[in-house]
Amino acid sequence: MLTEPAGPRQTQGLRVLVVEDEFLIAIDLQLMLEDVGCTVLGPVGTVDDALRILDETRPDVVSLDLNLRGQSSIPVAEKLRALEIPFIVTSAYRTFDFAGGESLTDVTVIGKPVQPRMLIEALSRTCGA
Questions:
Q1: Which of 11, 22, 34, 45 is deepest in the core (most CB within 10 A)?
Q2: Omega into 116 within 30° of 0, i.e. cis?
Q3: How far apart are CA 18 and CA 4, in angstroms?
């Protein structure tokens, strides 16, 4: 839980898609986001599920893990770019470790473990809130 404001309060009401395959991390991210008034879509833990969600709905911003059960999430990043949906990366991996990493150019990367303040501030900046 956040003990003080983590960033601009414009995060209230943002629809955030959480793409994370580690259950405990996904729930932690969800709780961090809901604590500041965001609506969480997902979490989803596979590339296929993330792409399906993006076909069905349009989040305001996305928190994207780069490694989903051993599969690169670059296809999700490419779709987000094509749809012009802003996103951040939450990952222990370096962006240049993946083929197709050019789709991550200028994307904010937050290392794990994710700190609430860093997450909220990065999402706020990324979506222009």
A1: 11
A2: no
A3: 23
Residue 44 pairs with which residues in a beta bridge?
19
pTM of the entire predicted model: 0.87
- The domain ranges of the chain are 9-126
**CATH assignment of 9-126, among 1.20.1250.20, 3.10.450.50, 3.40.50.740, 3.40.50.2300:** 3.40.50.2300
Residue type, 1: M
Matching residue, tokens 């296929």: 48
Alpha helices, H only, the chain: 23-35, 47-56, 74-83, 116-126
Over residues 11-49, the pLDDT tens digits come to 678 999 999 999 999 999 999 999 999 999 999 999 999
Helix 116-126 and helix 23-35: axis angle, to 10°? 70
Pair 123, 61: CB distance under 8 Å: yes
Reading the block at residue 128, the tokens are 């222009």
